[in-house]
Amino acid sequence: QDLDAPFSTQCQDPRMAASQPRENAALVMLARNSERDEARKTIQNIEAQFNQWFNYPVVFLNNEPWDPDFIRELNASVSGNAIFDTIPAKDWSYPPWVDPAAARQSMAQQATTNVWNGGKESYHHMCRFYSGTFYTLPALAPFKWYWRLEPGVRYTCAITYDPFAAMARHGKTYGFTIALWEEPATCPSLFRAVDDFRRAHALPQTPNWNALLTTNSGDTPWYLRPYPLRKLAALLGAAHTSRAGDRWNLCHYWSNFEIADLDFFRGPQYQALFKHLDRTGGFYHERWGDAPVHSLAVHLLLPPGQLHHFSDIGYHHEPFFQCPGNAPGEGQLPGNEALGGEEWSAESEGAIGCRCQCADQRRRNNRGICL
Ligand code: GDP
Ligand code: MN
């Protein structure tokens, strides 16, 4: 049977789902004071497409004290409770065993070798934060589920059911929209570090783990073939290869969208994995992203049935998007009849309707582009 059917193929009245009890969940947005406009537009968008019916709280996180104007404007945009929290300095800085001077030297090197964001110290802190310490923040302690938002992202179709409730009902732990190949130069030793952890803890090579390995079989469809083709693999040497010779296919879920169970990430297994990775200094001496860290972890520690592709959620983060096709039984939301069925484009982003379609059918659905 299908381990991962879409939660919804119907256009339903969101007020039906909203009449059911809420999950213990929050939308979470990390942002800078300077991103106020984009943060507000994203909140207005998720409110229009989802939260106006469900009124989940939104937790705003910043490594710096919040600008009162940001608080005022965003408070006014959220239909549920808005919580503004500052991240403790220890969660947004070097761990004691990483020498900042040596780290900055590595970052300068990354900047000259075109590692994406490799030269930006704050970006490294952000990736380390989202990889591990995010989950242990007191501000998130009351919640079991989170939905990650970023300034600038857009939801392009109405979400007419409660994805937290659907995750809980179906026994899901981690949900994503878009899967991509990681930039190889950002994390040459990440896969080996995770595989070392796997062996040290005697964790088996499950089918879910093996799904992240390259295969060289001739009948593998193009979209499952290794991204670093043999030539690049030779150039990279030991990069992305375990001690046993397994090679990561670089697939990962794009973490700017995530709906997931905080208890998994704050649990002992994941936190032990994070500590193991953090010990290596790879968040600074390389530029490990939180996305591949999460993806490798969920494939190592969870069975495939606990992962969920939200193929029914229309989502855009520059430069990629996922757009679900028209669902059977489509219709319009009450009060939005004129807008239903419109093709999504930047111009029509105010449109609310269950019928969403992509102008470019090749980008219709990201399933299979990577994993
Ligand atoms: P990209 O999507 O990988 O290009 O990275 P972004 O620039 O979108 O950053 C990812 C998330 O971290 C977004 O929610 C940003 O607002 C947030 N972010 C990145 N750097 C900082 C920072 O220095 N301070 C704060 N407060 N947020 C940051
Ligand atoms: Mn982003």
Automatic annotation (TrEMBL):
Molecular function in Gene Ontology: alpha-1,2-mannosyltransferase activity; transmembrane transporter activity
GO BP annotation list: cell wall mannoprotein biosynthetic process; protein N-linked glycosylation
Keyword Transmembrane helix among record annotations: yes
Key words, A-Z: Glycosyltransferase, Membrane, Transferase, Transmembrane, Transmembrane helix
GO CC list: Golgi apparatus; membrane
Subcellular location: Membrane
Domain of life according to the entry: Eukaryota
Keyword Protease: no
Membrane association type: Multi-pass membrane protein
Family: Belongs to the glycosyltransferase 15 family.
Record protein name field: Glycosyltransferase family 15 protein
